[in-house]
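User: Could you go from structure to sequence for me? I need the amino acid at each position, not a summary. Structure tokens:
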């Protein structure tokens, strides 16, 4: 058996999704004539209570278009130390937009509004960089699929607004937060001027993200998307996959969450320090391998030999992610193999 738990991006489109792709009416989207893209943009904007949305090939581009709309060259964006914008977009904010970033660190990526506000320096004058915006990641990827609490979000919003700092939501997995917490999507979105969402993570589309904001900002982002070379033509075939994902796969995320929790319980039973199941809120399981005789890379290699793939992201840190292509049999097999390898690493101590 092969069970690929490296990321929720590795799922492949189902035959039903491929059928939806095949049937999609399309047009030239650079001319604004792709009806499937247009309806997806309207649909997702409405789902989040925003005026408008723009379809992008990646979540990184959706984030980059958003922060470009909020922060001028030479100004500063604050984000958590392990946020995707800071760690996984290869310096795009600096390279493309002349934006500097500064970070605050949060255990599990869990937002504490005061931590962000403490390092904010709006209107710093001619000697220091001025903070213009703060980005929040919900759920927090490298933090372990952490859901950001609404009370901290609202607190951050109020404190940021009081000093004229703008907010961006990196909502690549906001769907997971919504399904797990029951908080409505517009409630999550309303505290942020710009929002990015991904269709290619747990929702299982092969490609596609959207940036949501006001009509004015989305209009300006359209210019920058084309300038970055991401104006796309008959891209309704991809937007159709997004429609299909929202119709069918959104409600299935609960099963990813259930399976991630199941795995966490199993591993916790072998060695409690590896993972606290109460911290596994969505589809990501972060493993702390500090107290076993294997490095994360060694642990991952032993699993790989038995067909279970995970991501070793640090010397003693690994990540496991459930997704559409992992069923109950798959997670049970993975739990069995991982338990066995974990057990053997204990014995060797
Ligand atoms: C995956 C992800 C993105 C976007 O990634 P792309 O690979 O560029 O689509 C953005 N933010 C977070 C938190 C992510 O996990």
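Assistant: Here is the amino acid at each position, in order:
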């Amino acid at each position: 058996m092969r069970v690929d738990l490296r990321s929720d991006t590795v799922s492949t489109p189902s035959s039903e999704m491929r059928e939806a792709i095949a049937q999609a009416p399309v047009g030239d989207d650079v001319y604004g004539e792709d009806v499937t893209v247009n309806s997806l943009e309207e649909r997702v904007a409405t789902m989040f209570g925003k005026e408008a949305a723009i379809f992008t090939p990646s979540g990184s581009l959706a984030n980059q278009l958003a922060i470009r709309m909020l922060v001028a060259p030479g100004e500063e964006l604050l984000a958590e130390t392990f946020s995707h914008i800071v760690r996984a977009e290869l310096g795009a904010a600096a390279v493309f937009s002349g934006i500097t970033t500064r970070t605050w660190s949060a255990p599990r990526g869990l937002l504490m509004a005061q931590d962000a506000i403490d390092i904010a320096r709006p209107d710093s004058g001619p000697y220091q960089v001025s903070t213009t915006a703060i980005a929040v990641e919900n759920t927090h990827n490298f933090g372990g699929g952490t859901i950001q609490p609404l009370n901290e979000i609202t607190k951050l919003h109020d404190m940021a607004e009081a000093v004229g700092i703008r907010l961006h939501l990196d909502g690549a997995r906001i769907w997971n937060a919504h399904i797990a917490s029951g908080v409505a999507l517009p409630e999550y979105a309303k505290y942020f001027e710009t929002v990015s969402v991904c269709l290619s993570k747990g929702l299982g589309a092969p490609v596609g993200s959207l940036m949501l904001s006001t009509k004015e900002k989305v209009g300006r982002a359209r210019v920058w998307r084309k300038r970055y070379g991401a104006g796309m033509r008959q891209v309704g075939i991809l937007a159709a996959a997004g429609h299909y994902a929202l119709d069918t796969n959104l409600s299935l995320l609960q099963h990813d969450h259930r399976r991630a929790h199941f795995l966490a319980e199993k591993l916790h039973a072998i060695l409690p320090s590896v993972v606290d199941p109460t911290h596994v809120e969505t589809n990501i399981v972060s493993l702390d391998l500090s107290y076993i005789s294997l490095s994360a890379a060694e642990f991952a290699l032993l699993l790989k030999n038995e067909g279970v793939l995970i991501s070793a992201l640090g010397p003693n840190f690994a990540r496991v992610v459930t997704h559409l292509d992992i069923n109950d049999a798959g997670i049970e097999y993975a739990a069995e193999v991982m338990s066995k390898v974990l057990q053997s690493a204990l014995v060797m101590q």
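One structural detail worth keeping in mind: The chain has two domains: 15-248, 252-348.
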